[in-house]
Amino acid sequence: MRSSLIIGASIATVIAAGASAEITGATVHNYAVTVEDFGGAMVSVNVSDLYLTSNDAADVALNVYNMNMAASGQVSYFQSITGTGWQPTNLGTIFDTEALQQADSFVTIGGFDFSADPAQSVGAGAGTGLDPNFGGNTAAYPGDLAGWYNGSPPSLNGQVGETVVGLGVLVGRFSYDGEFSIEGSTLEVTWNQGLGTGGQQAGFTVIPAPGVLALLGLAGIAGRRRRNG
Fold first, then answer.
1. Helices (H) and strands (E) in the chain — how many of each?
2. Whole-number pLDDT of residue 115
3. What residue ranges in the chain does DSSP mark as E strands?
4. At a CB cut-off of 8 Å and minimum separation 6, what does 28 contact?
5. Considering the domain boundaries, does residue 4 fall inside one?
6. What is the pLDDT of residue 10?
7. How far apart (Å, rounded) are the C-alpha atoms in residues 139 and 65?
8. What pLDDT does residue 21 have?
9. Is 28:48 a contact under the CB 8 Å cutoff?
């Protein structure tokens, strides 16, 4: 079962003087999964994958900072039994479960294969660090002004690529066994275009994934036609 919602548009404030905002927004792709955890327990959760979108394939995300989670997203997010908290770590072998790959909550600065919905496979998101405001690796949800970063910039983990929301990079997965929404959360981002290039920064408000805006628009037109018919 998959669903993506979109209403409104991203709000971007370029902080770096004179810089053009090539990371163009923060958007969330929503869906639900039912998967098996370690020991055979079945887990059913709603999932929100958080992406940064871009208009330039050369962009490389470096960090997310000053994130303030929307009130509707302040819940105790699901962590797989074999997970290690908010920093993505798949230990492989018997610990590599469906729940860890598809339902575990984590933050990252890229490092995932976008050929399908990104799975937390062995090595994915390696080197992600949390800043002190996050609240620690076992926090229920990111704290006020939370941040995370690529602790190994030479790896270029944050390189944008083609994703389910278009050109962009995955920066977090949030899973919960009830209703929640991270739409309306605010965050700031630093990116460049690889080693030796200058950094740029901008602030964004998280919006639903592109694609359903058109569907909602069509639904609105259809509704108006029915009322006017």
1. 2, 12
2. 73
3. 13-14, 23-36, 42-54, 60-68, 106-107, 128-130, 146-150, 161-163, 166-176, 186-192, 200-205, 207-208
4. 48, 49, 50, 51, 182, 183, 206, 207, 208, 209
5. no
6. 38
7. 16
8. 54
9. yes
The 10s digit of each residue's pLDDT in 38-50 is 999 999 999 999 9
Per the structure, the count of domains in the chain is 1
Angle subtended at Cα 201 by Cα 197 and Cα 203, rounded to the nearest 5 degrees: 160
- In a domain? residue 130: yes
Low-confidence ranges of the chain (pLDDT < 70): 1-21, 211-229
Which residue, among 3, 6, 73, 15, has the nearest Cα to 204 in the 3D structure? 15
Question: Which pLDDT score is estimated for 117?
Answer: 76
Q: Say if 6 falls within a structural domain.
A: no
Runs of H (alpha helix) within 68-211: 98-102
Amino acid at position 185, single letter: S
Residue 147 tokens read as 């941040």
Token pair 């999964």 is at which residue? Answer: 33
Decide if 34 contacts 44 (C-beta within 8 A).
yes
CA dist 214 → 9, 39, 82, 89 (Å): 13, 42, 39, 37
Of 16, 60, 22, residue with least CA distance to 153? 60
The residue segments making up the domain with residue 46 are 13-228
